[in-house]
Design goal:
Elements lengths: L15 E2 L8 E2 L1 H7 L1 H11 L5 H19 L6 H32 L9 H6 L7 H23 L3 H10 L6 H9 L8 H14 L3 H29 L6 H25 L1 H21 L3 H26 L1 H9 L18 H15 L5 H32 L2 H13 L6 H13 L3 H18 L3 H14 L5 H11 L5 H29 L1
Antiparallel strand pairs: 1-2
Helix pairs in contact: 2-3, 3-16, 4-9, 4-15, 4-16, 6-7, 6-9, 6-12, 7-8, 8-21, 8-22, 9-12, 9-19, 9-20, 10-11, 10-20, 10-22, 11-12, 12-13, 13-14, 16-19, 17-19, 18-19, 18-20, 18-22, 19-20, 20-22
């Protein structure tokens, strides 16, 4: 099955029992319970605190396979299992280079020879001599520009590390520093070279640029909520929050979002945020810092690997002849409805090559094997979970479980079934600190539901994806990382208490989006 057919089985073999109303058939309760077992197994494993995300994904896949064999509504045997696992493996193989390549490039690029002053001092200066207005502008710069940019380049909390490093000398209490660190995670759908969004697009069988553009609507609304949190935390820390500066910051955010929307459409989500925020960071640095020639030269040397890589990626995507040539050489496309792999066009390949070239230009070739090993150690669990989640999603889809679940949900709730999406996906995103788990478990059924109810497929896919990814900012895992970086261990409850109203606002935005999709699209 390809395309929507993969999500819309005809119901062959579905076991029904009749309720009092014979016109309202639903699957037998025991069958539904079995179909939910992969999700339950993963939840129990993660909540136990003794099982890693990778092992939880293994358990989810191992439980999905026998369920698909014995209770799936469509014929499912060894041949179908092999096909589903192969499809899942291929999806993982197209995503893994973004993760490992981003980590490798970032580690190589961070080994700058300009070490006369630390990166945070070079960017933010000596905090003790700054005016209150300059300190505030650097705080915004760290939270909403540098943090998302670093997260887009590598993922894995690099944005949080960059933000906290830049502002830790400003005298904030740990609980306030934790909030500012978490604000670096506000553009998660574009994090780690957009690998999560690319994976969601592969599940949804739609172009990644289309999905990314649909994500702009909820993310833009979320940014207004994050700005309110930013200003409230500054007030709690004793900083002045002037109306004029708030308007200025809103304008910077709006400009960034507009640039990001255009970059996502023309470049795709893997390079969009880097291309959109890179010039903004440079402009903001020049306007706020007004550096002398020596400081500008040092900053330029540190930024040169990123400038060169981003420029090359933008050119390969904006120049049609170059794009066509690179995309066609050694192109491998084993499945018509899944992303192809072109090694000379894939951004992950460019990241790996960029790291090697950077090390060679700086005469640091001895770093290549060391940093390659370090990148694998850091990213291996994320890579393995991508493969495992993709395989599990394909198994559940091939067995017809995803489609049959959506059919029954639609029969019970009709268009209102989409209202369940934000609640379940947000819960899984918070629990797993990732959108990959909820997408692998629920994206196929959500797309089947959209087809059944004649809803907008990209809108439903975007709702599913943003519910899992954006709400992961409230994950205990992310909170633990923030507490460790800000020396705020033990203050997590205070921070959660401060975040709770904003989490409720974000969930309300998602629910309103679900209502709009259900009744107006």
């Amino acid at each position: 099955m390809t395309g929507l057919a993969a999500y819309c089985p005809q119901g062959r073999g579905v076991r029904y029992h009749q309720r009092d109303d014979p016109a309202f058939p639903i699957p037998a309760s025991m069958t539904y319970l079995l179909w939910s077992m992969p999700a339950f197994v993963m939840v129990l494993a993660i909540c136990s605190g003794r099982v890693s995300m990778t092992n939880a994904a293994v358990l989810g896949l191992l439980s999905a396979i026998p369920i698909a064999f014995t209770t799936g509504p469509t014929a499912f045997g060894i041949e179908q299992l092999s096909h589903a696992l192969t499809r899942g493996f291929w999806i993982g193989a197209t995503i893994a280079p973004y993760i490992l390549g981003g980590l490798f490039f970032w580690r190589i690029a961070s080994h700058s020879k300009v070490q006369t002053e630390s990166a945070d001092t070079a960017l933010s200066g000596a905090s003790a001599t700054q005016s209150p207005l300059a300190r505030r502008r650097r705080l915004f710069f760290a939270c909403f520009l540098v943090g998302p940019f670093a997260e887009a380049a590598t993922g894995f909390g690099a944005g949080m590390l960059g933000t906290v490093t830049l502002i830790r000398h400003m005298g904030f209490a740990p609980r306030h520093l934790m909030v500012f660190g978490l604000l670096s995670q506000t553009m998660i759908p574009w994090g780690a070279m957009g690998s999560g969004t690319l994976l969601a697009a592969a599940y949804a069988r739609i172009p990644a640029s289309v999905l990314g553009l649909y994500l702009m609507v909820p993310i833009s609304l979320f940014m207004m909520i994050w700005l309110q949190l930013f200003w409230r935390t500054m007030r709690a820390a004793g900083w002045e929050v002037s109306k004029g500066e708030c308007i200025r910051e809103t304008a910077w955010i709006a400009t960034g979002l507009v640039l990001l929307a255009f970059a996502t459409w023309y470049l795709g989500p893997e390079t969009a945020l880097l291309a959109a925020y890179g010039p903004l960071i440079l402009l903001r640095y020049l306007v706020d810092e007004k550096p002398d020639l020596a400081s500008a030269r040092k900053a330029a040397i540190r930024a040169m690997p990123y400038v060169a890589l981003i420029s090359a990626l933008v050119l390969t995507r904006l120049l049609p002849p170059l794009k066509d040539v690179l995309g066609s050489i050694f192109r491998i496309a084993p499945f018509e409805d899944l992303p192809a792999w072109s090694p000379l066009f894939h951004a992950g390949s460019w990241l790996l090559a960029g790291g090697v070239v950077t090390a060679w230009v700086r005469r640091q070739a001895q770093l290549i094997p060391l940093e390659a090993t370090a990148a694998w150690v850091t990213g291996k669990h994320a890579v393995l979970t991508v493969f495992l989640f993709a395989m599990m999603a394909e198994v559940l889809s091939a067995a017809g479980i995803s489609g049959a679940s959506a059919q029954a949900m639609f029969a019970a709730l009709h268009e209102k079934a989409i209202l369940v999406t934000p609640l379940i996906s947000s819960a899984f995103g918070i629990l797993t600190n990732s959108g990959n788990a909820p997408n692998s478990l629920f994206m196929p059924s959500q797309l089947a539901l959209a087809a059944q109810a004649s809803l907008s497929l990209p809108a439903v896919a975007a709702l599913q994806h943003v519910s899992g990814t954006a709400m992961s900012i409230f994950s205990p895992v992310r909170m633990t990382i923030a507490a460790g970086m800000a020396h705020g261990v033990g203050q997590e409850r205070l921070v959660y208490r401060a975040l709770l109203p904003y989490a409720a606002c974000c969930l309300a935005v998602l629910m309103l989006g679900a209502l709009y999709i259900a009744f107006f699209m």
